[in-house]
DNA sequence: TGGTACATGTAACATGTTACATGATTAG
DNA sequence: CTAATCATGTAACATGTTACATGTACCA
């Protein structure tokens, strides 16, 4: 059909393998399952859904309560998803405004820098705690079912711990 | 003048504090100094330069060899940059196709997964080596001059080490 | 019966990517 | 003199963000 799937659209097809879902459901599922390393917005989701319905990758079902419109995966969609999976994933993009800001911050008041660093550190601490709770609540069966899902969670833990260490070193070194 | 600076445009103004530079120079400087956590493309740079010249934040100088057109910071540009610096930096965005792909990879052949993981690990090892070399070549005076620049480099080291650890654990656990 | 969470969507705009087009300078 | 690198830019498109507009169902 049209051009190849982008990663965002592909992820939606991925979720639709489990069951038909509405745009709303997909936004929430994506936020929960991949939100930490692949963000998307409602607008994007509705746009991609419309485009994929047009392309025949998904089909809208009966409108339910509250105009709820569940989309179901078609065979063409399943195929498009498989093609996407068959491509090698690209490298990560990190856009870290704090680092950019710090690269230019040499003449900023220490006080302000420390406030910002403490705020960001607190956010990372919260996220780390969330991952730790998630890890603690994992049942052994889950590992059998989806070892890679666990690896992804482990990435989150590893990342947040490293970042938190960095904040701690930085603030301690500068008596923050 | 028009809407507030975006981070990409702001970084260009930041670099122009040192000296007038052409679009080409800016692309290379940005790649070198902030490329690891703030990527930008040539097209974007030329577009932002045109917009900022229009807004009066920079001024094009005499055209040099090869149509080289150096842009110099104006007072208005200095002010706009200062305003940007005065805002609190937002949180990071990470888009990690590998993790997205892994979240859906449970029925992919192990062999392929391992190949991909090894490739990505190698890239991270290379980047880490680059940071370590950069760190080793730092003179003590540099710390006095720009402690935050060093903190940014330290972030890179911390990040790459953590990621590399993750790859190693993953590949060892699965006998890669 | 009123507030909260659910639900969908459009419009306008900002940002980022890729491909195309052109030519100058320099090193060998 | 010719290939590589430097240098600038446009066009077209893809992706991501923000604001606006509309209404429904559920729970207290």
Task: Give an account of the 3D structure.
Two copies of one chain form a homodimer. Helices cover 65% and strands 5% of the residues of chain A. Chain A is mainly alpha-helical and 176 residues long. A two-stranded antiparallel sheet of chain A has the order 1-2. The first copy, chain A, is elongated and about 60 Å long. The mean pLDDT of chain A is 91. Strand 3 (93-95) of chain A pairs antiparallel with strand 3 (93-95) of chain B. Chain A binds a DNA duplex (28 and 28 nucleotides) through residues 3, 6, 8, 22-24, 39-44, 46-47, 50, 65-69.
Task: Calculate the terminal CA-CA distance of chain A, rounded to whole Å.
Answer: 57 Å
Strand content of chain A: 5-15%
Runs of chain A with pLDDT <50, length 5+? none
Number of strands of chain A: 3
Characterize the quaternary organization of these chains: homodimer
Classification by helices and strands of chain A: mainly alpha
Largest interface: A-B, 55 and 55 residues
SSE series of chain A: HHHEEHEHHHH
Helices of chain A, by number, come to 8
Overall geometry of chain A: elongated
Radius of gyration of chain A: 20 Å
Largest sheet of chain A: 2 strands, antiparallel
């Amino acid at each position: 059909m049209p051009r190849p799937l982008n990663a965002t659209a592909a992820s939606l097809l991925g979720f639709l393998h489990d069951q038909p879902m509405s745009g709303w459901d997909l936004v929430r599922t994506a936020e929960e399952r991949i939100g930490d390393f692949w963000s998307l917005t409602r607008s994007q989701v509705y746009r991609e859904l419309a485009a994929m319905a047009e392309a025949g990758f998904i089909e809208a079902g009966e409108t339910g309560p509250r105009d709820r419109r569940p989309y179901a995966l078609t065979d063409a969609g399943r195929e498009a998803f498989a093609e996407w999976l068959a491509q090698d994933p690209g490298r990560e993009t990190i856009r870290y405004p704090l680092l950019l800001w710090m690269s230019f911050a040499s003449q900023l008041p220490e006080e302000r820098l420390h406030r910002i660093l403490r705020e960001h550190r607190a956010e990372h601490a919260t996220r780390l705690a969330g991952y730790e709770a998630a890890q603690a609540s994992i049942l052994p069966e889950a590992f059998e079912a989806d070892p890679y899902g666990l690896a992804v969670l482990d990435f989150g833990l590893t990342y947040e711990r490293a970042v938190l260490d960095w904040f701690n070193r930085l603030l301690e070194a500068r008596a923050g």
